[in-house]
Design goal:
Distance between the termini: 22 Å
Order of helices and strands: HEEHEEEHEEEEHEEHEEEHH
Radius of gyration: 19 Å
Structural class: alpha+beta
Strand content: 25-35%
Mean pLDDT: 88
Number of helices: 7
Shape: globular
Largest sheet: 10 strands, mixed
Low-confidence stretches: none
Length: 279
Amino acid sequence: MGQSLIQRLEQGLDYTVLHNLIKEPREIKIVTTQHPIFPDDVIKYVDDHWKDEIKKRPQLTDGDVLGVDYPISDGDRITLPVYNTKFRYLLGTRFNQTHGFSVKLPGSGGITILKDEGVDYFLFGKRSPNLASVGGKIEILPQGLVDKKDLDKTSPLDETILREAQEEIYKPALLELDKENVELTKMQLINSNYWNNIVLDYVLSLNDKNWLKKLRREDRGDYSVLYAPNFKEHTEFYAVPRESLTNFIERHLSAETEDERLGVSTRFRFRSYLNNIGE
């Protein structure tokens, strides 16, 4: 018997589901905490690694980033402790853990369903090949990391996903996101060992009749390609009707060329979606 679509989506993925928020809804709260104390050998490794990296990439800057510790579960609440750290600690420990010490990043990722004239469209973006992270891949929209300015909001992770929706979906169409038209459904809090992030996955339902009309549209049978030529992050968008979603995913799971395949984040989030919400 062949593999199911969910099995094919999760093949090779490296992650841990920390909390399933569809089955067990909980409040998620972010709190600031102290920077973890790294042993001297970790600090030395980070500093030496940083010196090597800036020789190769002198444009790098040792700016501030947010790290995150493992979540703390207490009754109906999940607490995510975040702390201020430097980019050099991220660069030096994220993919090369020293004695088990590693800086993880907090983030949000979403599957977007655009509701337009009675049709549900799933939105994807083709990332520019010039991007350092998963350049050229087909990815879901939106996704991004928690910013310091998000911490001032009542729900920082909600703020992150809405900010990224404005940047990745609405800005290319020269539109402003109306938060009144957005419904957020929290799916899962996951630890991505692949990216070394702790991420909250959402489904975003957008009730919007203007977005599709603002971009040049080309129909390709069971889905549409939309172009935003002045936007650098994605070279094109895909609007896939609900009834065509399975065919679209299967087509790009088995694509012959690397730049036609689904990115890791897309595979994981649709695995979560199909497993928890389904069609």
